[in-house]
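Example (one chain per record):
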Amino acid sequence: MKEAASVPDATEQPRTGRARLDEVQDVIHQRLADKTYGPGAVLPSHRQLAAEFNVSHATIAAALKPYKDTGIVCVRKSRKMVVVGSLDTVTIPQGQVARRRAEKADARNEVIDGIRRVIRERIASGQYGLESLLPEQSELRCEFHASEEVMRAALKPLQDDGTLCFVRGHGMYVADPKKGPRSGKAAVEHTVRQRVADGTYAPLTWLPTLLILAGEFGVSLTTVSLGLAPLKGEKLVGTASYMTYVIGPSDPAALPDTPSPHPGQELGRSHNAGSRKNSVRTSPTDTSRAKTSGHHGPGRHGMQEAHA
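Predicted structure:
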């Protein structure tokens, strides 16, 4: 599309000779800095380094040149490269590496900002309408010539500010600010907050159980708990007897007068408790004891009763 033409191409700086040279020099610089190649150490040969980095001998020679020129590395008569200096006294190579790293980071950020700008423009123009699905990320990566990591970095701020929302099993869509999010803990928080505000969940009444809310929103119990956490922090809802209720604004300490409409379903604890009871009744120890007693036959008292 035309909009993508103004976006820097993320593949303009791929693994070219220049990029490979920078990578090799970065590694050599790090090894000199952390004393992997300390003073007096003999460096691997050009052949060995070329094999390690999968580059040509010329690339290795170019990567080592700044360190030879500044006297950090010296070639002996045996043609072995020996470390004779320290980076502590020479800053030119370090500055070159830092500058190249900064240039790479700036180029990457420019690509990310450009993609994000184009997405925002398409949403503003209606090309990506409210509640419409965005193209799949594979299509966007192909269009913008960007990696998966770059696409994630470009879209994440749009998700954080509520412009986009990801629905599991469907994809990324444009959120409608009037309707709020449709999935995840944000949807739970938004919907419950709205129901408390409009009186659907009246003060001093019980909310549905986490199991019911999880089924309604198609999320896990943990996600429901995370969605309710901000409302508990704002004292809009509270918890008593493992159930959630709407706090009364006039008396925050008051509890609902009516018992929970979902007895035995508090947060799914009864189900878990029942499972634990069942597990106790059929514990391996009890089973082994039963097998043991069955194997040895009746006890002494049983034998006496049998004789009687």
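Caption: The chain has twelve helices and six strands.
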